[in-house]
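Subject: sequence -> structure tokens, single chain

Hey, anyone have a minute? Need the predicted structure for the following. Not urgent.
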Amino acid sequence: MRGFFISAAFLSCILLPAAAQEDDKSERLDSVVVAVSRAGRNTPVAYTMVGKRELSAAAPAKSVPMILAWQPSVVTTNEGGTGLGYSKMTVRGSKGSQINVTLNGITLNDSESQEVFWVNIPSLSNILGSVQLQRGLGTSANGAGAFGASINMNTSYVSSEPYTKVDLSAGSYNTFGGCASISTGLSPHGFYVDALFSMASTKGYIRNAWANVYSIYGTGGWINGNNSLKFTVLHGTQHTGITWEGIPASKLAADRRYNPAGKYKDGEGNVCYYPDSDNYRQTHWQLNYTHQFNSPLVWSTTYNFTKGDGYYEQYKAGKEFSKYGMSGAGTADFLTSKNLDNGYHVVNTDLKYKTRTLDLAGGIYLASYLGNHFGSAVQQGVEDAESYEWYRNKGNKREATAFLRAEYLPLKWLTAFADLQYRVVGLKMQGVDDEFSDLAYDTVWNFFNPRAGVSGRWDKHRAYASVAIGHREPGRSDLKEQIESVNALRAIGQEAEVTLRPEKMLDTEIGYEFSGKDVSASVNFYSMEYKDMLLETGKLSSSGYAIKENVDRSWRRGVEVSAAWNVSRLLSLRGNVTLSENKIKDYVYYKDTYDNSEDWNKQGKTEIHAGTVDMLMSPSVIAMCGLELRPLGGSDFRVVLDSKYVGKQYWDNTQTESLSIPSYFVADAFVEKSLDFNKCKFIIGAYCNNLFNRDYYADAWVYRAMFSNGDPEYIEEGLFPQALRNFSFKLRMEF
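Reply:
Had a minute. Here:
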């Protein structure tokens, strides 16, 4: 609790971060496609902006979620404990599959799981110009329905002048990185080319949390008068150790860097570890054409193709041959490989009409995704053993979305807002999965998502209110896990059906902002009321996906307060706090039931009524405070300290005290110095993460089963400890 009182003390003396204020500049042709999906200064939704300076100043090993960790209502964690590798974030408790993420207006959420795997696009922050984080349903966005937040990112705008930038970094746990970018600038005839290459590697904090990643970015185009043509390629390759199992609670005190992945015994009985790995590469091609017909009317169209393929490899000790569809008696060790090969086509076209009193935008988004899944196994210890394919299935997802959004100023100080979106989503699955379950499934969902609100702005003040209705379909992984469960119950003679339903939400937001010369502040009240919410159970699939279920009635209600104060040329303070209630009403869950703890013959599921409980991984208190010192009174030398308090969180939805993450307080600090030599600029940064060396873990999963003969409950869990105090250094050279 001491960390919370430190945060509260800061918040008591400061009253929206400066980064939350968006410049009211005229839009350029190369930014129109992003502006369509973003909230403007008068849009009645809760949002913050993270600019180029904050993105560039982040510690070298941190992914986008870790950079956004200081924003209101955000909680982040990293599987490997350091920031490089698989990162996750929640906003108001909403998980990654409920957060819509777009890059230049194109969704980055995986069509099947609806997650964003940030590790697949390493060093993304180096190519971004800005990020807008909308909380709640926000404005209409393409792709996966936003059900807790939206992250709208754009690549850096065209530079008017040529430049070259080189970043070199090193840090704890053998972490190294490098990034080089170059731009021709905008030529007199309107042509430009930008390119970037980055790489990073780390040994990681927990065992097997190593990572080797790199990315390539290139964009070229032509801007002339009322026309803009732009082609962009973004490629990412990642090779990482598997860390999604976490560590057992019993190991946390004795060896918090332990990781059970790949564990087996050799012929002499010695414990060994195979370097289980995840390997994936993804390439995005985007072609955009933008035309300004006249001053108020702009048309923009983008075609995107994303190609992804990869596999993860695991050592499986003591498995029966039948597990992989092979003939043979007894057990053996196997090396398994699960593969994914997918393609994603998108056409996105929209019109934007803007005058002094009317801002009107509309668009159509068409997408098709095809994902092939297949797995193979090779028996270990047998010379020239052949690989055996034991499953293959595929999924095809199609989507058509249309939206129309308007902001109208009937009075100089008043804005009326309306946003109408219609989505048609089709999903077809076929083939068998790794448990030999037939995944045959074919359905179409239709969703209408309206939003409306008002916003008033006078002098330094702004007040707003909005209401929005949203719908979101289950993901492939959600359906796959339930289909497996249904098939297992049918196999033992019980009736069962696939019952996962789309989730619905009514989001109400009421807020106020004050923006003064040196002081800014905001308060936002929200109520997110859910019907049939697809909520995580606390269990993970064999591939590390969170297994979900529908809950009839639930809600997230809270208040968000943000503030910033430029005390002087030497000192700035900022902070935010979220106080919330995240509840499931009359929660009923089903626990796997077996005959006894020796034979493990499945007998079905036992229904348990838990009453009204807290949602898993949804802290009721999130607070952040930070300060920036400028000892020389300018921006060329600064010291920044940021700290975060996260309240208690439960591993699952049963609100069991023994299955909870204790509250924690963590702080980061960095020092940055800029040096100018003729036409060269050097920026030196030194970073300290987990400044106070806190021993904490930030995420967890749990599986529980019961036995009809009265044997004690079986509990299996995985905890994700974060690294203790660690350091990194970065040198940037700009020419």
